[in-house]
Amino acid sequence: MRAAVMFAYAGGVLATGLRDVTSDLGALDSRGWWAVVVTYEGKVTCARFDRVERGPHPGGRWVPPGEWSSSLDEGAYMRGVERIRAAIADGDVYQANLCRILSATLDGRAEIGGLGARLVRGNPAPYAMTLKLPGVEIASASPELFLSRDGEVVESRPIKGTGRTERDLLPKDRSENVMIVDLVRNDLGRVAEVGSVSVPELCALEPHPGLVHLVSTVRARLGGGIGWPELIDATFPPGSVTGAPKSSALTLLDALEPVPRGPYCGAIGWVDADSRRAALAVGIRTFWAEEGLLRFGTGAGITWGSEPAREWRETELKAARLLEVASGDGGTGHDLAERRTARS
Length: 344
Description:
Helix content is about 25%, strand content about 35%. The chain has a 19-stranded mixed β-sheet that branches. By secondary structure, the chain is α+β, with helices and mostly antiparallel strands.
């Protein structure tokens, strides 16, 4: 990517004037406004900025990437679904989120700000963020809240259940959502005041560009002495993109997924240590630049009721509109996903 000013943009706020970068989550309990990235594998980047003000998204040149390849082709993905179903039958897991990583050659003239601006126009999302930091370039259109914070009150809004319309949602989608809500309640319960964990909203229907989701809300009040290191340790990786039980799902997914997820399915967002407010998204619907490639992840939650071909189509649906925006293609997102995702 071409050299440019380091910045972070989220929710109409532009942060510039990079002051320092650290991998210490404890810094988020100090002072200042921080951009935060935690990869699925646990690599932490916290960047503090001096100038934070409302403004438009930064511009930048964007050049569409080359042909996409997938870490799992259709056959391999469907075999992975069957392996998860077998693990469910054996009682090892109840649910697991199987993911694949798409990669395409990135033109050296392209700028991450240009892609982020495209996403703001073409796929607006409640927890979108664009970041350019040393060694970290991300353009995310995440619709999912991993953790928000307002003082001692924290909230998570896990997504489970995806379709083009409400009619596409199945009974297994609601069951899966409830299962993940229980997992998130347990995670937050490890650091919350006793009796403070609640579920104000369960399986609410939420529209997004090109699809709908079932979204629930889990809320809690942090116990005394709990800072960001303890909160992340208790809740990471997000339950909606791992599975239940989380530890067993992580072991199974490590055996099934051939490449690291990176920022995809991690946490991406901001922390204002001065006001003690924050919003960290689950790193889905997210592009990142790495080693001359543009990468993008997509996946689906697998339960005993999953049909392998349907789960593959769900990964295509989730990717389609975003790939269309990144490519500048004039066709439908669904056609683009089928045409440009190589069978590797």
